[in-house]
Amino acid sequence: MVTITFDGKSYPGGNESVLESLTKAGLFIPHSCKSGLCQACEMRLMEGQIPNQGYKGLTDNKIQANHFLACQCIPTQDISIATLDGEVKNISTTLIHRIQVSQSIFKLVLEPKKTLSYCAGQYLRVYHSKNDFRCYSIASNPDLEETIELHIQVIPSGKVSNWLVKEVKIGEQIEVSEAMGSCIYPNNNMSPTLFIASNSGLAPIYGMLKKALYQGDKQVFHLVHGVTSEKDKYLTEELRELKNAYPNLKITWFDYSLVETNKQKVFIDTALSQINSPQDWKVYFCGHPDMVAYGKKQSFLKGVSMKNLYSDAFVPSKVN
Amino acid sequence: MSLYSEIGGDAAVSAAVDIFYRKVLQDDRINRFFDDVDMEKQAMKQKAFLTMAFGGPHNYTGEDMRRGHARLVQMGLNDSHFDAVMEHIGATLKELNVPDNLIVQAAAIAESTRNDVLGK
Ligand SMILES: Cc1cc2nc3c(=O)[nH]c(=O)nc-3n(C[C@H](O)[C@H](O)[C@H](O)COP(=O)(O)OP(=O)(O)OC[C@H]3O[C@@H](n4cnc5c(N)ncnc54)[C@H](O)[C@@H]3O)c2cc1C
Ligand code: HEM
Ligand code: FES
């Protein structure tokens, strides 16, 4: 008999899947196939270890982010688990640096009070108040940086973005969650990789790009950064330096304001024109939800394999 | 040996999902049923779908198929759409060089779900 801790309560488990144990206890956990195929029952392991079967069919990235399938996991020791958008541990940080880097974007640096472990490309929740948070992607490289760099795009009349760039003072505390998300750059990757970012979507991609290049990955990397207008371009110096140090990095900037119609199409066509053998490439998309959805579909139709597509859509919060 | 392992098991299904889903998204007769905002989720469902059609291990009942496709029947899902999907299953297996006698068996499994899928 083992104990499954979920949402602050304990449930008996063992000899059956986590899905069955929680369902018997009267909880509703989304599921469909109960065979490890549909991934509707995907959850996150917070503490403890589970047998490998629990990771059946998940991508390496999801495994690295501690995701597992409740219908496939028969626990053999006590575990603590959460739904993907459920309970998280929070960590206190101090705002130690803030600078405006373009017309629309501020760079913030947070220093966590205790170690905050994260993978390159993950995001965390930033809490404005107890139940009011927004997600922001981490632009730091976990191999070298302990502080958390964020790129905040100021949204007109946006509550949390304006609070972060105008109201919080240097030295003040900001509550964040642990890192989450499975759009990450792995410790081992041999595939040529295309990174597609729109505006502050560059944040997670900058973190991933630093990790990839600093850990010595030698394959071709291509970054395509789309910005609303020339004045929204940022991080250009840092990126140029990276490019000079690493000849396997190519960078293309794209100015949305120079395109009249079908902006997403022109942007994605430009980005995808960089790759000639799509079946070999990994492609990452971060930023505006429309760009991400359109870009993923076009890449897939062009021949990029589903398992090589990674994305974080910066979906607006539905709290308001 | 079961049909599923003869076709190539989980690895074959994974390869088949990419090919099948690409065909479906490009087919104007049926792509509106599949045009999900979350492509990965939809692809995983197609994986469940193809595992079933290839005779692989699954826990779906006819009732599950009815319930799972009821939303699509309301959107107008009918025999012609079912036929289109059958075409793509066959073409996908052909592209994977699966022998004809196995394709016939897979097609028969898929065909056997017709009434449940169409809510008849
Ligand atoms: C996984 C994830 C990662 C993210 N990472 C980042 C990041 O690294 N950097 C970053 O700047 N943002 C990021 N976001 C977006 C961020 O979480 C907030 O949605 C954004 O900052 C707006 O919050 P707000 O409180 O300022 O505006 P709200 O008060 O929540 O919204 C105000 C109004 O603006 C609208 N709105 C929100 N976003 C936009 C937009 N982009 N364009 C036009 N209108 C908009 C809302 O619908 C609403 O009507 C991420 C989102 C997700 C889901
Ligand atoms: C040929 C026989 C068919 C079989 C064996 C089959 C099987 C399945 C299975 C197992 C699922 C996954 C359910 C889940 O886990 O949620 C599914 C989902 C789905 N099927 Fe089918 N299916 C068949 C025919 C069709 C046809 C003809 C269409 C439309 C043209 C279709 C469209 C879909 C869609 C869109 C989903 C996702 C449902 C959702 O997102 O809610 N299927 N199918
Ligand atoms: S219920 Fe389908 S993978 Fe678990």
Report on this model:
The complex is a heterodimer of chains A (320) and B (120). With 320 residues, chain A is an alpha/beta fold. Chain A folds into three domains: 3-82, Roll (Ubiquitin-like (UB roll)), CATH 3.10.20.30; 90-177, Beta Barrel (Elongation Factor Tu (Ef-tu), domain 3); 193-313, Nucleotide-binding domain of ferredoxin-NADP reductase (FNR) module (Rossmann fold). Helices cover 21% and strands 31% of the residues of chain A. Chain A has seven helices and 16 strands. Chain A has a six-stranded antiparallel sheet with strand order 9-8-11-6-7-10. The radius of gyration of chain A is 20 Å and the shape is globular. The mean pLDDT of chain A is 94. The model of chain B has no long low-confidence stretch (mean pLDDT 92). Chain B is mostly helical. Helices cover 72% and strands 0% of the residues of chain B. In chain B, helix 2 (9-25) packs across helix 4, helix 2 packs across helix 6 and helix 6 packs antiparallel against helix 7 (100-111). Chain B has one domain (3-117): Globin-like, CATH 1.10.490. Chain B is globular. The interface between A and B is medium-sized, with 18 and 24 residues. The complex binds flavin-adenine dinucleotide, protoporphyrin IX containing FE and FE2/S2 (inorganic) cluster (FES). FE2/S2 (inorganic) cluster is lined by residues 31-34, 36-41, 69, 71 of chain A.
Largest pleated sheet of chain B = none
Low-confidence stretches of chain B: none
The dominant shape of chain A is globular
Q: CATH homologous superfamily of chain B - what is it?
A: Globins
Low-confidence stretches of chain A: none
For the largest interface, the chains and their residue counts are: A-B, 18 and 24 residues
Question: Helical content of chain A, roughly?
Answer: 10-25%
Total individual domains of chain B: 1
Mean residue pLDDT of chain B: 92
Q: Tell me the structural class of chain A.
A: alpha/beta
* Secondary-structure arrangement, i.e. CATH architecture of chain B: Orthogonal Bundle
Separation, N- and C-terminal Cα atoms of chain A: 44 Å
CATH topology of the largest domain in chain A: Rossmann fold
SSE succession of chain A? EEHEHEEEEEEEHEEHEHEHEHE
Give me the CATH architecture of the largest domain in chain A, please.
3-Layer(aba) Sandwich
Strand content of chain B: under 5%
The overall number of domains of chain A is 3
